[in-house]
């Protein structure tokens, strides 16, 4: 009996996804819950399991296509391998479910009372802002009248705009195509890479970025780790890394200086009562930031376990959408690649990000004598709209104090 495979909804605020890779080809037999295809959304990349056992008879959505939730992307046949005639594949970049067929546009669309009542995703709202489109004038074709990315692009293509962009020159000239010299290979960005690019540019436009760097003596932390690393792994089954040390120090600093755990909403400052640590994880195909929620409630072991689990599942595409949402502060570690320090871009809507540099031995002067100590440079990137330099220095001073005078038990 034929079974439709649909694009799942990977979280309440996600209403479309991009098929990035088919793990099976037409004619292959798949088992129930066996990974069938990979998707990328605004929040997370994930493997989607097969809803039933059967033969993959039809693929309706090609790799790279973006579709709305509940769209049929493929058909499985659980019996003979010959499914009933499936819906015809849609060639457009965004596939719209039949139930969400576009209604005729009214001659004068009525505007909702406020933008908050318009059903759309953060990505759609960002596109509307970039193209000067009033979402109240766009007819949504998605589920329940939700406005999709393709609705915005179609509206712009037809010349619609709610706010006039800055006046162009009297005779606008189309941009000349770039002609590359020498031997080149041109490849389109992956879905994840394109989204990372959008977010980084958006963050630079949003926050007033400033960075400060502190040198931290990590000798006590290194001694603690070396002393207990064997017992820690034997008892808990995970490696004792430096990351939970930095996480614990950051949590304590965030509790002492809650402005670093805030967000900006217009002219308001939103103070988050929970400390949700975003932990940047470098992947072979990009970057993702899983979140340790309520980090202030976890002890050292709890942080170590959660960080290890999130990093492992990030690399195997097993994260849930809610596990990459609602961070209030982010930690990134360019030092694992040897960087002495970095100047990271703030992860919106956070107002600060902690960069961890390489941990190395160096000669330092202590009480007028030269000693060999283990050193690390920490960088705080902060939003100068609400965090001043004195507060940023106080934050890093707190982190430095915790690490240099480490006292907390790790077992």
Main pleated sheet: 7 strands, mixed
Give the proportion of residues in helices: 10-25%
Mean pLDDT metric: 85
First-residue to last-residue Cα separation: 55 Å
Q: Care to describe what's here?
A:
The chain is α+β, with helices and mostly antiparallel strands and 411 residues long. The chain has three domains: 2-97, OB fold (Dihydrolipoamide Acetyltransferase, E2P) (Beta Barrel), CATH 2.40.50; 119-157, Irregular (Dihydrolipoamide Transferase), CATH 4.10.320; 209-404, Chloramphenicol acetyltransferase-like domain (Chloramphenicol Acetyltransferase). It has seven helices and 20 strands. The protein has helices spanning 122-130, 149-157, 191-206, 219-236, 243-256, 300-315, 389-404, and strands spanning 2-6, 16-22, 29-30, 35-40, 45-49, 54-59, 66-68, 72-77, 94-95, 209-217, 262-265, 268-271, 277-279, 281-283, 286-288, 291-292, 329-332, 352-356, 360-366, 369-383. The strands form five sheets. Strands 10, 13, 16, 17, 18, 19 and 20 form a seven-stranded mixed beta sheet that branches. A hairpin with a 2-residue loop joins strand 11 and strand 12 (268-271). The radius of gyration is 25 Å and the shape is globular. The protein starts with a strand and ends in a 7-residue tail after the last helix. 34% of the residues are buried. The model is unreliable at 80-86 and 90-116 (pLDDT under 50).
Write the layout of secondary structure elements.
Blueprint: E1 2-6, E2 16-22, E3 29-30, E4 35-40, E5 45-49, E6 54-59, E7 66-68, E8 72-77, E9 94-95, H1 122-130, H2 149-157, H3 191-206, E10 209-217, H4 219-236, H5 243-256, E11 262-265, E12 268-271, E13 277-279, E14 281-283, E15 286-288, E16 291-292, H6 300-315, E17 329-332, E18 352-356, E19 360-366, E20 369-383, H7 389-404
Parallel strand pairs: 7-9, 13-17, 17-18
Antiparallel strand pairs: 1-8, 2-4, 2-7, 3-6, 4-5, 6-8, 10-20, 11-12, 13-16, 14-15, 18-20, 19-20
């Amino acid at each position: 009996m034929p079974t439709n495979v649909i694009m799942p909804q990977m979280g309440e605020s996600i209403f479309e996804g991009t098929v990035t890779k088919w793990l099976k080809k037409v004619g292959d037999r798949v088992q129930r819950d066996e990974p069938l295809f990979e998707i990328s959304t605004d929040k997370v990349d994930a493997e989607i399991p097969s809803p039933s056992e059967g033969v993959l008879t039809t693929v309706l959505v090609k790799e790279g296509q973006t579709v709305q939730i509940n769209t049929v992307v493929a058909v499985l046949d659980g019996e003979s391998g010959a499914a009933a005639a499936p819906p015809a594949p849609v060639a457009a970049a965004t596939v719209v479910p039949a139930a969400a067929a576009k209604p005729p546009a009214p001659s004068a669309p009525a505007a909702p009372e406020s933008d908050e009542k318009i059903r759309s995703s953060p990505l759609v709202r960002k596109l509307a802002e970039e193209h000067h489109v009033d979402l109240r004038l766009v007819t949504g074709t998605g589920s329940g009248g939700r406005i999709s990315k393709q609705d915005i692009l179609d509206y712009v293509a037809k010349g619609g705009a709610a706010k006039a962009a800055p006046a162009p020159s009297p005779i606008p000239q189309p941009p000349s195509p770039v002609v590359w010299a020498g031997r080149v290979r041109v490849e389109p960005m992956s879905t994840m890479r394109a989204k990372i690019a959008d977010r980084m540019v958006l963050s630079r436009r949003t926050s007033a970025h400033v960075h400060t760097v502190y040198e931290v003596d990590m000798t006590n932390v290194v001694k603690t780790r070396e002393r207990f690393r064997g017992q820690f792994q034997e008892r808990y089954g995970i490696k004792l890394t430096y990351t939970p040390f930095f996480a614990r120090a950051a949590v304590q600093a965030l509790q002492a200086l809650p402005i670093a755990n805030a967000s900006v909403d217009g002219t308001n400052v939103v103070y988050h009562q929970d400390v949700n640590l975003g932990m940047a994880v470098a992947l072979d195909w990009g970057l993702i930031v899983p979140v340790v929620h309520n980090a202030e409630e976890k002890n050292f072991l709890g942080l170590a376990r959660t960080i290890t689990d999130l990093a492992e599942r990030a690399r195997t595409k097993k994260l849930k959408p809610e596990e990459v949402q609602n961070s209030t502060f982010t930690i990134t570690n360019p030092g694992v690649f040897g960087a002495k320090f970095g100047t990271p871009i703030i992860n919106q809507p956070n107002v600060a990000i902690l960069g961890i540099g390489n941990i190395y031995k160096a000669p330092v002067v202590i009480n007028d004598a030269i000693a060999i100590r283990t050193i690390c440079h920490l960088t705080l990137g902060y939003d100068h709209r609400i965090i001043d330099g004195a507060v940023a220095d106080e934050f890093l001073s707190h982190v430095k104090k915790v690490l240099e005078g480490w006292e907390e038990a790790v077992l």
